[in-house]
């Protein structure tokens, strides 16, 4: 079992690198306790959705895993461990990006801080935007993952029928949207409890507010690089066209929002999160 765990790390270093980046971003944001609880809960939700789909066709539609690596890496009841684990960091970076889009922004010295409040974190807007951001990540990921036999992922799954979007059925994206709603809602539920003092692990990391969006972009760039590497230029171009305008809009609007917050927005932020760097001289 130990050898299988080590081989899982060796075979999927990119997945565990993204997971390490998730820990680096999430712990200073919400603390160790909430981060680890979500890692477990998020994994269980993702695993349940995948296990349900390969046995009932819901929520992603009918697909199957190809059991060629279960002797070399960790599988759990017919599902590769790394696959369900990926949902954890994809959910967090999507939710954190939604918070970055929704929150006022403040610059303090060379740092950039989101004026998050408890209301913004728990809002329906963060839920909806986070779920759609995660689903759109899969629109980039799934077509290239389906070509896994042409790169180091390997051919680990397939669909019983060719789908409309480069072999991926539309039902897959509908399932991702539903699962993403559940995952983001779970994160919000875990984060609902108000903390009187800074949770353990939270600290004023420079540009902490950008870590979630940077992780989101890193996942996109990684998949675009792989797509170009295997020669699927149309898939890569389609993904670039989907995301170019949103990335430009978010960037321009973020620049325009810096230090244009109202006094009540700053007070609400400091009231909800008194350990904020903006509450220090």
Descriptive keywords:
281 residues; mainly alpha; two-stranded antiparallel ribbon; 6 strands
Structure described in brief:
The chain is mostly helical and 281 residues long.
Structure write-up:
By secondary structure, the protein is mostly helical. 64% of the residues lie in helices and 6% in strands. It is built from ten helices and six strands. It has helices at residues 2-11, 13-30, 32-56, 81-102, 118-121, 124-145, 170-190, 208-229, 233-257, 263-272; strands at residues 63-65, 75-76, 79-80, 105-108, 111-114, 157-159. A two-stranded antiparallel ribbon has the order 1-6. It has a two-stranded antiparallel sheet with strand order 2-3. The N and C termini lie far apart (52 Å). The mean pLDDT is 95.
Query: From N to C, what is the helix and strand string?
Result: HHHEEEHEEHHEHHHH
Report strand order across the widest sheet.
1-6
Number of strands: 6
Describe the main β-sheet briefly: 2 strands, antiparallel
How does the overall form come out from the CA principal axes?
A: globular
The residue-averaged pLDDT reads: 95
**Total DSSP helices:** 10
Q: Into which percentage range does the β-strand content fall?
A: 5-15%
Low-confidence stretches: none
Structural class: mainly alpha
Chart the SSEs and their pairings:
Blueprint lengths: L1 H10 L1 H18 L1 H25 L6 E3 L9 E2 L2 E2 H22 L2 E4 L2 E4 L3 H4 L2 H22 L11 E3 L10 H21 L17 H22 L3 H25 L5 H10 L9
Antiparallel strand pairs: 1-6, 2-3, 4-5
Helix pairs in contact: 2-3, 2-4, 2-8, 3-4, 3-7, 4-6, 4-7, 4-8, 6-7, 6-8, 8-9
